[in-house]
Specification:
The chain is of the alpha/beta class. It contains eleven helices and 15 strands. It has a six-stranded antiparallel beta sheet with strand order 2-1-4-5-6-7. The chain has a six-stranded mixed beta sheet with strand order 8-12-13-3-14-15, sandwiched between helices. The longest helix has 40 residues. The structure holds adenosine-5'-diphosphate and magnesium ion. Adenosine-5'-diphosphate (ADP) binds next to helix 1 and helix 2. The site of adenosine-5'-diphosphate has 16 residues, from helix 1 and helix 2.
Amino acid sequence: MIISRLELSDFRNYNELSINLSSGTNILFGDNAQGKTNILEAIYLSATTKSHKGSKDSDIIRFGSEEAHIRTILSNNEYESRIDMHLRKNKSKGIAIDGVRLKKASELLGLLNVVFFSPEDLSIVKDGPSVRRRFIDMELCQLDKFYIYNLNNYNKIINQRNKLLKDMVNVPELKETLKIWDMQLINYGTKIIERRISFINNLNEIIKDIHKNLTGGRETLKIKYEPNSTLDNYESRLNNSIDMDIRYKSTSIGPHRDDISFIVKKENGEEIDIRVYGSQGQQRTAALSLKLSEIELVKKITGDTPVLLLDDVLSELDNNRQNYLLDSIGNIQTIITCTGLDEFVNHRFEIDKVFKVTDGKLESMD
Ligand SMILES: Nc1ncnc2c1ncn2[C@@H]1O[C@H](COP(=O)(O)OP(=O)(O)O)[C@@H](O)[C@H]1O
Ligand SMILES: [Mg+2]
């Protein structure tokens, strides 16, 4: 699926915008704070219903306006499709596909797949566990409708359970009701753990070759799931931690405390956890491998090619990695933001459309 057209109204710093995109490489360039990333955000919303940076709808609506609209026209070889998204200040968003309103936002998932790559992604290996969990969650939500359902329910129950733990200080009898919450928590939590296990298995099958190529055969990368609890010990660990949870008024056991590690095996067979012992270069290369694997994983699971959104990321990479990235893109639709065109001048790769972004307006340069 490709995006052939994007229309925005009262979205971030755009009053009205409508652009036609190429099915190849599209460049948006311009100074800082002009609205380049905002366009990628609109596309990300059309694919996932959420902002890539987790912004609320009310922050996305243009200052002084009451609502925002995004219209995305998609096409593949056989047909066209239209996504309309309507953001309102104090209500949930309205979404329609080809004019038919969706009952739940999650029904949209799967129609358009995107891979978003920003400079922050390059530090995913060295950042804290929450960043890595967010990566897994965002990815799985796109690829798996059941995951988002289980995750939403899990998070709701965690919040309710934590509130109960706080209320228990004054009403100790509430401890009895904890059991009911915990049964549901284990139900949803188990499904999250199962899906994460298979996600990481799938990812490992792909990342191995990518990382090997990227490092010229010097390193092999493996992602290791580090669950807070396993499928076998989750229930008993949760039960055994009840007194501690009451003391700290928060839930200490479960997949909301999971992590993944990045294990690099060197030519001499030595294995290191590069979260802790990797050089910055190693950590960034692993992050790039991860992003490239994401593209392949989406292809494999959905049978569709994702749209690649590269937000200011090329200037962050050295020449080798830049070339590797651009070479791996192949023939998927790509939208690249950057501050200048210089970085492309010496490149052999083809640019199909170029837009200059200035203060919420786009000027086509071709
Ligand atoms: N809700 C909003 N309404 C109007 N302008 C906004 C809103 N949110 C952000 N902006 C403006 O958008 C600009 C930043 O856009 P962004 O796409 O991040 O820029 P860049 O070109 O650097 O990627 C800033 O000028 C900011 O003030
Ligand atoms: Mg930006």
